[in-house]
Write a structure and sequence with these properties.
Blueprint lengths: L7 H25 L5 H30 L6 H12 L7 H25 L5 H24 L3
């Protein structure tokens, strides 16, 4: 996943698109999960997609607040989501969600540094990124605990 050549607005758009992709990945896995741990994994995926949806909404609202709604283009979002989702096609639901969350953590770190380096970081944006990053770390922990041996 190439994270070069972004403007602050386009990187924020990609960041929101990744959160929306996490929502789609986790919700799809919520529907597809089966096996011995069906119910607990079904509930886990619901918890993860609901958190991803909430985080995407918060990030989009922050983006519009910082950069205006002109920076939020649904066609660009759709292209980003399609590109992101193409990287997460594993049939194992837990492995697929875990890979997506770990990738998001790397994107989140780069996004944070990029916003700081480009003097776009505000206290509110710092808090938002940190909070979402923390939620993703928690998701990684929960998914790792759910892996069957």
């Amino acid at each position: 996943m190439n994270l070069d050549n972004f403007t602050p607005e386009s990187f924020f758009c990609f960041y929101v698109a990744f959160l929306r992709s996490l929502y789609l990945i986790h919700q799809n896995n919520h529907w597809k999960v089966k096996g011995n741990y069906f119910y607990s994994n079904h509930q886990l995926f619901q918890r993860l997609y609901e958190k991803a949806q909430s985080n995407a909404d918060s990030a989009a609202e922050k983006m519009i607040g910082l950069f205006t709604d002109k920076s939020f283009n649904v066609a660009e979002q759709t292209n980003c989501i399609n590109s992101i989702l193409s990287n997460f096609t594993d049939e194992d639901e837990i492995a697929n969600s875990l890979k997506a969350e770990k990738t998001f953590l790397r994107v989140s770190e780069k996004f944070y540094e990029f916003m700081k380096d480009n003097n776009k970081m505000t206290l509110g944006l710092d808090d938002l990124i940190m909070s979402i990053h923390n939620d993703s770390e928690e998701a990684v922990y929960l998914l790792q605990q759910s892996k069957e041996d």
